[in-house]
Amino acid sequence: MIHIMSVNALPDTTHGPSIGLPAAMGALVLPAPPCQPEAPDTPESMIVAFFESRFAYSTLDPTPFVATANAHIARMYAQGKRVGEAFLHALPVFLSVVNTQQRHGGPFGAIVVHYAGGLDAHGYGIGPPRVLGVGANHVGPHSDPSAHAEMEAYRHAAHRQGASDLSGAVLYTSCESCPMCLAVANGSGLSRISYLNTRDDAEASGFLDKRQYALCALPRATLMTSAHRLQASVRRDLRGKLGAHGAVVVDAHGDVVAAGDVDTRSDPTGLASLQAVRRAVQHQAAAHTAPVWCLPDGWTLVCREIPHPAGLMMADWARLVRPRDPAHADDPACDSPIPDPTRVIHMTEHYEPLPVRDRAGQWHIRQATETTYEQLTVPESARRVRTACFPGGRVSQAARAVFEAWQHEAAGGARAHLEDPSKCPGGSFAGNCP
Ligand SMILES: [Zn+2]
């Protein structure tokens, strides 16, 4: 007998109050998004059958998951059954559970889906879905602050289709995307994001995406510095360090540690700014045995252009924007909420473009602009990418239970909550994972 969920409590369809910053930084209020009811389109037995399959799977090798999920979908259609939103949301929950159990990263999973008949006017799929790419949080094992589940799913999907343009695709994710992942969704042309846990749920479990959303709305001059404000000799020096690269990371001695150049042929995350930070962190990791995802104090990201918001948010995840508290270097909750604008410098007043290539080989230049930054702060109804949470029903409860289990362990609770999910607060789908 499959025990999916033991809680009877209805999911929380109300979010916490609006978030704000200290008055000195200028108050910012972001309205919480309304949630949509669950469409009763996927019989629970279908979801259970997938979880029962118990196929061997490592989240570090996502390809077998795609094959298994698509085979399961094909079987359902062969039986005349429709695969709907609930099933597609269950897959990232499954990924988040397996990822946590295998200790490959945080409790986050995501999948990119294409529909055979495209999308309707509301962004919902027509015809059978096909899983194009999947991802789980691998920040730790990859020493890569950009290795969020969504980013890994974008990369996997783009690599598999040999093109970085994700137009017409839908992202299903176990948690509301952070600004970095949302910014890449904007640039890649992704049509819709549907998520389970919210930024409030994430914060309650120790993940600080909500703080980063608050950061996004601050004036640009508080987040980064234009080289025009620097002395001519400093500008010349930085220009020399940048050379022909799109971005470089410079250490506290002024030496270039890593360089980034745009390469988005089959990776929508291949921004110069983002890649420079990514390589700098991996450079740091090479000197350590434990996972690394922060850059040391005194290091600086130098960009040719105003960085794409995904690159800037990556710099923030690597602790270039909001300084760490040296006494609590491993606890992001202790990071300063006040950004340091001297850690990210742009040499020109142009915006960094995000060119993506479609499957026909055509390039589409998605130029970052002020509007791209605004997309991270406007209400969901005003976003170019449709985003909405998907609460209600057992899939949402399972996603929340995984967060609760993670939080329990992070607070010093027994590992058993993850090893034996029947002991999770509320239970979860996890009882049927490999
Ligand atoms: Zn993210």
Structure description:
This protein is α/β, with parallel strands linked by helices. It is 32% helix and 14% strand. The chain has 13 helices and twelve strands. A five-stranded mixed beta sheet has the order 2-1-3-4-12. It has a five-stranded mixed beta sheet with strand order 5-9-8-6-7, with helices on both faces. The chain has a two-stranded antiparallel ribbon with strand order 10-11. Helix 3 packs parallel to helix 12 and helix 5 runs antiparallel to helix 10 (309-317). It starts with 43 loop residues before the first helix and ends in a 15-residue tail after the last helix. The model is unreliable at 1-40 and 415-434 (pLDDT under 50). Residues 148, 150, 177-178, 180-181 line the site of zinc ion.
Short structural summary:
This protein is an alpha/beta fold.
Keywords summarizing the entry:
alpha/beta, 434 residues, 14% strand, 5-stranded mixed beta sheet, 12 strands, disordered C terminus
The hetero molecules present are: zinc ion
Helix content: 25-40%
Spans where pLDDT lies below 50 across 5 or more residues: 1-40, 415-434
Total DSSP helices: 13
- Shape by Cα distribution: globular
N-to-C order of helices and strands: HHHEEHEHEHHEHEEHEHEEEHEHH
Query: Overall mean pLDDT score?
Result: 82
Share of residues in strands: 5-15%
Largest sheet: 5 strands, mixed
Radius of gyration: 21 Å
Beta-strand segment tally: 12
Spatial strand sequence of the major β-sheet? 2-1-3-4-12
Instruction: For the record, give the distance between the C-alpha atoms at the N and C termini, rounded to a whole number.
Output: 16 Å
Structural class: alpha/beta
